[in-house]
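Researcher: Go.
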Amino acid sequence: MMARATHPALGPEAHTGTSAGRWPVRPGGRWLVPFLVVLLLAQMAVAMVTTAVQQTPTIDEPVYVGTAAEYLSEHRVRHNPEHPPLGKLVVAAGVALADPHVDPSFTGGQSLLGQRLLYGSGNDPWRLMLWARLPVIALTLLFGLVVFAFARELAGAVAGLAALALYAFSPDVVAHGSLATLDVPAAGFLLTSAWLLWRARRRPRLFLPLAGAALGAALATRMSSLAAVPVLLALAGVSAWHASAGAADRRRALLRAVAGAGVVALVAVALVWATYLAVDPRLRWTPEQRVPVVRGLRGLLVRSLPFPEAYRDGMRVQFRLENQPWQGFLFGRVYTGSLWYYLPAALLVKTPLGLLALWAAGAVVVVALRRLRPAAPYLLAPAAVLLAAAMVGSRDLGTRYAVFLPMFLAVAAGCVVAARWRWAPVVTGALVLFVAVSSLRAYPFYLPYSNEAFGGPARTRLWLHDSNVDWGQDLGRLADRLRERYRGERVWLVYKGSGLPSFYGIDAADPREVPVRAVHGLLVVSDSSAAKATGRLARLIDSSRPVDDVGHSIRIYRR
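Model: Structure:
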């Protein structure tokens, strides 16, 4: 009999039978799995590119795009220190191809930097934003390959395909992977680091440095990735220990574990420094905004970070942002501050029902099955720590703060096919199909997606706000709608976003600046503004009749 191929870190029982995704390979069948991988990624690419083409700049994008252009033209870090440079360097790859004109005389703050580049420097914002988004789209597709490879190594090709399908049809991943923002890149780098640490159980000399580079890439993209450092360094030690488990000297194995964690840490730190040096080899740092003084334990943490001063000042700015009284909206309730259960509740709304079921089943399977249990800490521990850190944050602004979950848990969910239950592959396939249908029905409105239990994208505004539904992405669609259906009518606009309405041909006034009785015609309000409306705006909405909806993020009323 021929011996079955096994993953060296799982043992000979890892791929037994069809339940683990090992199916007989027919003549020509070796091309089926690559074909399906390409097919899934191709549909994801089409969804993201067509979505990117149709959306105007969201609230955060102009800052990142403007800073990326500044990196290219001035070769220095000045604006947006609260986010390290790597994600913006990814965006800069597209900006460089767009070759925009940059106004060298601009001296304003970062909130106006991107607006000047997009609308005040003679550039075409549609073209520039598409080029800026394309590198993030490409990176999101590459992270899909990591999801597939991780799940395939754990439970076979069928598990890899199931995991990739769940990732490719995740509305949150598609929505934010098609934007020139930092959430998906940072989360994807963390997943890549965890996968490489898993592979380091067999070949630590190769994969520990690579895992450190992936961790450094995450740290050089978003500072929230710092929360994952302790658990990933611990996993580095576990992998190095496992690789030397056959050694007779336990002390030597322990030293190798410590050395493995040290290698990951050193490479990660080196990559952060390399990122800043790539922007400015002289490491000049003159902050555009006032950097707050941070004292106490937070101040000690900032001073102890082995990173450039610009990074540490960015951390100080982040702490200032955390101390601000942010306003939230959940299930119709407006509140100031944060709710610890906000993210779990928002994920319940924003995640396809089939995906929720498979996430839960996947977490159980990787813990319950002996052959998968070694991988459980690599999948569940980083996701749990990152979620806990995000839940105690002060900004209840969207599930994008937990976009790592559709990545890590997609891998775990794919492993459900390895369950010792004859119907596991069939049920998994049915749930994957349910997720795909739910996601495709939302096209191209992935940002305001909510699942069927909460009424779909058209009703997300009733439960959530900000980047969950209305992030300024539909200004262009609004301009088209006004031209097509309401040409020549008086327009009053309350828009939440970074776009410039007049550029898109929208001639509107702010209804909050005149008496209520003077507002006649069309009242157009972004859903996030409507959700938190008080005073005059609330009276205007209550006394108006809704007549239209644009992109499930902007409502048109008639007065």
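Model: The longest strand covers residues 545-550.
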